[in-house]
Specification:
The chain is α+β, with helices and mostly antiparallel strands. It contains 26 helices and 14 strands. β11, α6 and β12 form a beta-alpha-beta unit. α7 packs antiparallel against α19, α20 packs across α21 and α21 runs antiparallel to α22.
Length: 590
Amino acid sequence: MNEFIKLLDKNIEFVSYEIINDTMYINIVSNRNEVICPFCGEISKKIHSRYLKSFQDLPIQDKKVIIILNNRKMFCNNPNCNHKTFAEKFNFISSKGKKTKRLENEIISLSLNLSSITASKYLKRSIANVGKSTICNLLKKKDIMINKEDITKVCIDDFALKKRQAYGTIMVDIDTHQVIDMIFSRELNDVVEWLKTYQNLKIVSRDGSITYKNAISLAHLKAIQISDRFHLLKNLTTYCKEYLNKIFKSKIVIEKNTFDKFNKNKFCADKNKEMTKNERALKALNMINSGFTKTAICQSLKMNIRTLNKIINLKQNDINYYGKNKLTLKQQQRFKNKQELINTVREMKNNYSSVSKIARELNLDRRTITKYLDSTTTGINGNLGSKRKSNLDPYLLFIDHMVDLGATSTQILEKIKNKGYAGSASNLRHYISKRKNLLSDNCKNKSYDKTQHILVDRKLLIKLIFNPIEKIKELTPSILNKVYEKFPDYKKIIDIVSNFKALLKNKCSNELEAWITTTSKLNIEQLNSFINGIKRDIDSVKNSITYDYNNGLAEGSVNKLKVIKRIMYGRCSFELLRSKVLNIDSMKFN
């Protein structure tokens, strides 16, 4: 035990210990003959008094440890010293500390990846009695020393402490990938003063923020600013997607009579999609009986292998009900029962029974019996499939017109209420939702024929902005060429995005001006906004094409920061958050 105690300091000796419940109490004493005054440096041997000082240390054998030091108070012999007495000090604990420094380090390392509440609960089990506020205070005091003179290449980005209210800025070293610093602001003046403290900055990567652009220019005029390529490409594709959503309906009608065999197979697949679940299940069973493999059936019917196995395992009685909803089954059963009753009436009439006798035996009205005897009567309800009258009917034309103009259901409801509508808002919303799910106006046109045309989803055409056609299985070159013929602007949009991607990939910064000129000639509002943003920050955009640096490190660090912030359960002052982020990164790289 004495050897263990001397690991703290060679100038202390073990006296005794006692275990009470889950805690070990260790008594120690100093063995120094001389003590140096911390205020003047004078050596003193004269003892003023003694007192007991207790503090916590790392656990031993799952027992919490409290060390009780029989400490001395000494007289200072120097008449010029400001203090007549002083307490003996040791390096393993601060002057007023209640925990050894090695215990504090253990608490900090454990608490970095946990909330203070969770860390406090864990520590109290077998390490030390520590409150959540103590943990927060220890983390705030633990600061990282930054050698600002060595920092030359950084990327910066903003992050939200409280969305739309409070923001900060984070800085990451491009060479070491380590978070260097954070400030509780993204305002111009604050960022300028912050950047000036890093005197040797040569390269700064950032997003398209004009505030950061101006701040870097004011703090380091000669520093190379690099705009992030990801943000450039994201902004371009977002603007293009917004434009395509305006010019395309949700479904686009394309002629299919000139398509190749590959497309004909695709049409067969589309027909499979139009089949009901029950029809697909019956067809799958017929193909199994005909000797087709499961793989061939799944490819032909565009069916998942698990769905096919489920169909195969169905009993013969259950297959007729597969894929049918309760309402359909109820209607079919009702039709069957009614048809059986009609057949019974007709059999009784054939056996020379009178209408009155049949009515009495079956407990039906004679008029009903007469109707059932009519050869045109069937078990199908005459109202089946017919639409019930709705209080929306007088306003349907007006509602359709408003929906086409882009009005919301709330705006439409207000208008039709002024016209006299007394129904519910949910009734209107249901109608608008149902209408939007139908085919577009082009598809409902009489000129649209399934045998002569094919419907192309707008989302497939938008996918082409992000992916090559080889990765879009539902879209073929033949279909795409037809779309290009019908919508020439669409091809120009795709070419513009492709050229910009090639420009970034091949590092052709000298071609940027020509690309801007070509894109401007289209005179598309969304693309004009993107071009204005590039022109406003043209130098950094050209640098992003020339250099390999990007802002991915800062973006990734912001994501990690958000995780840390959420773990802290709202006990998230900026000082505490900064300390946690910097210390976690420091531990990774040291």
